[in-house]
């Protein structure tokens, strides 16, 4: 009888449970939407009022932190946390890819390639220096009992993941205040490429951790090159295939433009999943897919599809990035962190600053050795580069991965330290960027910097085209442009010639006026303005 009554009651309980579960899910989703709306509205108000001490990323983070604290106080942590928490797969499959793709897709080709040598030096060699210096300093700090002790390989994994910069807050303030386009290109270009470098280094160190026996330096280097070059090749290959498809498939007619737009949206995810399926890095692959698709496939689209693609990727990237910062603030209040290792966080911040300095100033020295005197990176810009090394979504994502890759206590310590570092850099560095730029005298057009005196990033021509001011000290704009072109052709003549004579004609539709400067720079201005939002 007891068994029968239990059988009779259980279905009723089972019917109630899904209802409560669905209600809790609705409340959790509603809370997320409310926080997103509040973040965008608050960010808009802050931009309108020109309040640079609280950037949009900082506002999103603070909103998540406040809501998390209120959830704890109201004893609703269990129900809200269960539905607000997103799984690691959701983060890597749906939030991170659009952010990384948009970074490559919004990359302005001309400022990027005119500073390509410097950007690659900072992003590849510099990130390698920063990760190694950070890892070794953290390891030595553990040996000296200054901080929580971790094995050397785990310290190098931490150095790799924390070397990924995400200066979206700094770049938006660069755009608002107006600064030299080459400084903007260096900061933005480095942040785009060093994500790929950081994740390749992290995966290499993770594989060494998983298989400690039989590893030597040569095999580690081979494994890194396999991950980085293989992922880059997959991304570039998918980008070229998409360019050929949109060139020859004839999808730009009126009744097929929806299909054209759908295919353009699917190719980035195809690149990401292809690389992951091959055991490579989907993040690296989708980044280079974005660069190639913007340079070759984008011009093969119809005008309506171009407008849709630009707006769509900007939209989902902005939503994803805002949600990531909200989640980080919420996570601090709701998760169980290893706050007992405060020394690890404190000394990690110091070591990261030292590693960032080793990265920026050593790479700037190497770049200046081969650059003409009027194109050298001045000390003011080097300091701005050092200061702009915020940590963001990529560092947070890799730290989230480390919780599963490392022993429980070690992974949780690294995750807690990374979360704290991201929060502090966004709040402190992001909030003080305007003051830093003014102190270094690299904003506006009225200072005596040889770079800023040429013009600012917000200069436009009569057709609202974006004018890229060159590195030069001469006063004649005609001479500056000539020198800029000469230097550009000297530093990138081979790639420019191959691209102009072979790649562009082969992969793109030639309309006769693709080099119209006003059209190009107008699009670039629109892209930069949208990214600042």
UniProtKB/TrEMBL annotation:
InterPro entries: Cation/H_exchanger_CPA1, Cation/H_exchanger_TM, NaH_exchanger. Gene3D superfamilies: 6.10.140.1330. It catalyses: Na(+)(in) + H(+)(out) = Na(+)(out) + H(+)(in); K(+)(in) + H(+)(out) = K(+)(out) + H(+)(in). Keywords: Antiport, Ion transport, Membrane, Potassium, Potassium transport, Sodium, Sodium transport, Transmembrane, Transmembrane helix, Transport. GO terms for cellular component: endosome; plasma membrane. It is a multi-pass membrane protein. The chain crosses the membrane at residues 24-46, 52-70, 90-108, 120-148, 224-249, 269-292, 312-330, 342-364, 384-403, 409-430. Residues 40-438 form the Cation/H+ exchanger transmembrane domain. It comes from the Eukaryota. The keyword Transmembrane applies. One of its GO terms (biological process) is sodium ion import across plasma membrane. The keyword Transmembrane applies. It is found in: Membrane. One of its GO terms (molecular function) is sodium:proton antiporter activity. PANTHER family: SODIUM/HYDROGEN EXCHANGER (PTHR10110), SODIUM_HYDROGEN EXCHANGER 5-RELATED (PTHR10110:SF127). Belongs to the monovalent cation:proton antiporter 1 (CPA1) transporter (TC 2.A.36) family. This is Sodium/hydrogen exchanger.
């Amino acid at each position: 009888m007891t068994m029968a009554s239990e059988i009779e009651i259980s279905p009723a309980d089972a019917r109630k449970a899904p209802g409560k579960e669905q209600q809790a899910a609705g409340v959790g989703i509603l809370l997320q939407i409310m926080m997103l709306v509040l973040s965008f509205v608050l960010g808009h108000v802050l931009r309108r009022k020109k309040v640079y001490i609280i950037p949009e990323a900082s506002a999103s983070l603070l909103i998540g932190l406040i809501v998390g604290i209120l959830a704890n106080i109201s004893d609703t942590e269990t129900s809200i946390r269960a539905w607000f928490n997103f799984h690691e797969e959701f983060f890597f499959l749906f939030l991170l890819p659009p952010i990384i793709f948009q970074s490559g897709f919004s990359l302005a080709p001309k400022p990027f390639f005119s500073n390509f040598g410097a950007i690659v030096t900072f992003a590849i060699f510099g990130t390698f220096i920063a990760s190694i210096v950070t890892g070794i300093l953290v390891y030595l700090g553990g040996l000296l009992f200054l901080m929580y002790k971790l094995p050397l390989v785990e310290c190098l994994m931490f150095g790799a993941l924390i070397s990924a910069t995400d200066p979206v807050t700094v770049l938006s303030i660069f755009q608002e205040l107006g600064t030299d386009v080459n400084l903007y290109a260096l900061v933005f270009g480095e942040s785009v490429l060093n994500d790929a470098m950081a994740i390749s280094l992290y995966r290499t160190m993770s594989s060494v951790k998983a298989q400690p026996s039989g590893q030597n330096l040569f095999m580690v280097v081979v494994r890194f090159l396999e991950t980085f070059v293989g992922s880059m090749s997959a991304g570039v290959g998918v980008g070229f295939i998409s360019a050929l498809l949109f060139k020859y498939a004839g999808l730009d007619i009126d009744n097929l433009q929806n299909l054209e737009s759908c295919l353009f949206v699917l190719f980035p995810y195809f690149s990401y999943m292809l690389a992951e399926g091959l055991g490579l890095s989907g993040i690296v692959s989708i980044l280079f897919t974005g660069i190639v698709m913007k340079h070759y496939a984008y011009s093969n689209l119809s005008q309506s599809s171009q407008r849709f693609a630009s707006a769509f990727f900007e939209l989902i990237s902005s939503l994803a990035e805002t949600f990531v910062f909200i989640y980080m603030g919420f996570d601090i209040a709701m998760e169980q962190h290893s706050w007992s290792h405060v020394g690890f966080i404190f000394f990690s911040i110091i070591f990261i600053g030292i590693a960032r300095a080793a990265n920026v100033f050593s790479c700037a020295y190497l770049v200046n050795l081969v650059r003409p005197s009027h194109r050298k990176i001045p000390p003011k810009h080097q300091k701005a580069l050092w200061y702009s090394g915020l940590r963001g979504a990529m560092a947070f994502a890799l730290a989230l991965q480390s919780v599963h890759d490392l022993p429980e206590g070690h992974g949780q310590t690294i995750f807690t330290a990374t979360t704290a570092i991201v929060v502090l850099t966004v709040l402190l560095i992001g909030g003080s960027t305007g003051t830093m730029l003014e102190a270094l005298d690299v904003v506006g057009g009225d200072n005596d910097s040889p770079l800023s005196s040429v013009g600012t990033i917000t200069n436009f021509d009569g057709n609202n085209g974006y004018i890229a001011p060159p590195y030069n000290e001469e006063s004649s704009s005609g001479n500056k442009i000539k020198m800029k072109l000469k230097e550009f052709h000297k530093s990138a003549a081979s790639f420019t010639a191959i691209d102009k004579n072979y790649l562009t004609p082969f992969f793109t539709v030639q309309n006769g006026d693709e080099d119209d400067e006003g059209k190009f720079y107008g699009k670039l201005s629109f892209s930069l303005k949208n990214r600042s939002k």
